[in-house]
Amino acid sequence: MPSRKFADGEVVMGRWPGSVLYYEVQVTSYDDVAHLYTVKYKDGTELALKESDIRSQSSFKQRKSQSSSSSPSRRSSSRSRSRSRSPGRTARGRRRSASQSREQKDDKKKTIQETSLAILVLVLFKPSENNTKRYNGEPESTEKNDTSCIILEQKLKPDLEVKRVLEQYSLRSRKDDKKKEEIYSEKKTFVAVKPIEKVPTKTKELEFGGRIGTFMLVFLLPATVFYLLLMCKQDDPSLLNFPPLPALESLWEGRVFGVFLLWFFLQALFSLLPIGKVVEGLPLSNGRKLQYRINAIGVLLYFEFELHYLYDHFTQFAVSAAAFSLALSIYLYVRSLKAPEEELAPGGNSGYFIYDFFTGHELNPRIGSFDLKYFCELRPGLIGWVVINLAMLLSEMKIHNLSVPSLSMTLVNSFQLLYVVDALWNEEAILTTMDITHDGFGFMLAFGDLVWVPFVYSLQAFYLVGHPTTLTWPAAAAFTVLNCVGYYIFRSANSQKNNFRRNPADPKLANLKFIPTATGKGLLVTGWWGFVRHPNYLGDIIMALAWSLPCGFNHILPYFYVIYFVCLLVHREARDEHHCKQKYGLAWERYCQRVPYRIFPYIY
């Protein structure tokens, strides 16, 4: 096993990926498995570099001194060789040789001066407050509304930057340049540049409480679901009135599990039908883009059994979904052990079994063209949520002998149906979310998609079946307005973000201002994203409150969803904050100064 060359804390010269330029960096750690050094640049940017991309500072100084000391000797030997030429040559030939020699030496000197000048210009003529701008040719202004510059920044390469500076500050005369072009046009050489491959590193910063936290969540999440469902069945669903535990044999029924499997696999079959458009996701770490078929809006099913059956066996359906999600999570982890390194999730590659099992080891597990994570994010759980709500509405009418559903049940169903239809109609927007681009597919998302979403998000409708609430029309109108406000903020903010990510050069977005970053992407500072950093979270929370208010104020149980959702989004915002700070560096700090509030304006 090769020994490391550079120690932690040592200041060295690190090559910026994709360029020939070296910058002063400090070694922070070393990965013995991947043989990569984690180095920190002066602006705070941290990258993983190979040992071949790192040089000691002394080697740079030594080369400089050797270059300066060897020049006189070369000039001296050149003069001596010139004087010792054959006496048979004519004086004119000697003069021409001496003249050519002087031109060559002058050319060499100019080349060295130009290279030094190019590097000097790159260093001096860029703002010193953000070194990442120098690495990527980022413009000096911190706020722009010209979306075309993002496209240029993505195409700009460091070697082209050096070439541009050399041409701009050339020390040669135009006559010399013309001669050079004539010479090089006769013998052109094409050099194939090998692209730098990104080697995935181990996940060092563990989330969700690390190994202990994820181990506890594997048991805590299912227990929470069953506790909530058992509480809703009680006549007095107060928090202090703990429900009696049912017999274990009553929690499982083969027919219920069969119905759940039928639902899941029929949804999978419909998602594979050759209908709807095919779109590309965001580029992966290796530059590849996955394709996704968009057809979820047309995949609503009708089952040939009475929906009241779903209400009567609701807890058994939840147990069946939990058992299936656990089996799916085990399959996902086992198959991820054979996945290539570049297909592993950046946040689920820690090397610890329980952590990677919970967060997801593989980023986009696929069976052929069938993407398991993308399918579970939208189809069985989200559409199942609507089916469960409809079953609760029909059960309320049957149990209480109503000819029409109650106003409270109608509002809850309508509000949540709008949310689901919006998600399915804008199915393509999910491809830019954190779940798809960063999180792996493990127990966290499998349980969340198949159990938590359909059985916890439908808690208000389930509560209203056993605890009907009378609602006045003015109150219903106020709740409707509140939901519409939340939906408008949620949808318009997400549309701005998704359209800007997909096509920043769209003329419709010309009025949006942004802060350019070293990655070539921009951070929006106008519209909803200039109001708070996560306006879509704000709209989500407002809608969650509107869904709970029709249940009245007798118990806190139907407000579990909005309380949980605030905690979830605050935690997710903290994760976003951490990742964006690492990814965008000082540009993110400038964005935070420009937009100080995270979710709630003037509060948080």
From TrEMBL:
GO terms for molecular function: Delta14-sterol reductase activity; DNA binding. One of its GO terms (biological process) is cholesterol biosynthetic process. GO terms for cellular component: endoplasmic reticulum membrane; nuclear inner membrane. Residues 76-97 have a biased composition (Basic residues). Its EC number is 1.3.1.70. SUPFAM superfamilies: Tudor/PWWP/MBT (SSF63748). SMART domains: TUDOR. Its main location: cytoplasm. Pathway: Steroid biosynthesis; cholesterol biosynthesis. Residues 4-62 form the Tudor domain. Residues 53-111 are annotated as: Disordered. Residues 55-75 have a biased composition (Low complexity). Pfam families: ERG4_ERG24, LBR_tudor. Keywords: Cholesterol biosynthesis, Cholesterol metabolism, Cytoplasm, DNA-binding, Endoplasmic reticulum, Lipid biosynthesis, Lipid metabolism, Membrane, Nucleus, Oxidoreductase, Phosphoprotein, Receptor, Steroid biosynthesis, Steroid metabolism, Sterol biosynthesis, Sterol metabolism, Transmembrane, Transmembrane helix. The keyword Phosphoprotein applies. It is found in: Cytoplasm; Endoplasmic reticulum membrane; Nucleus inner membrane. The keyword Transcription regulation does not apply. It is a multi-pass membrane protein. InterPro entries: ERG24_DHCR-like, Lamin-B_rcpt_of_tudor, Sterol_reductase_CS, Tudor. PANTHER family: DELTA(14)-STEROL REDUCTASE, DELTA(14)-STEROL REDUCTASE LBR. Belongs to the ERG4/ERG24 family. This is Delta(14)-sterol reductase LBR. It comes from Sylvietta virens. The lineage of its organism: Eukaryota, Metazoa, Chordata, Craniata, Vertebrata.
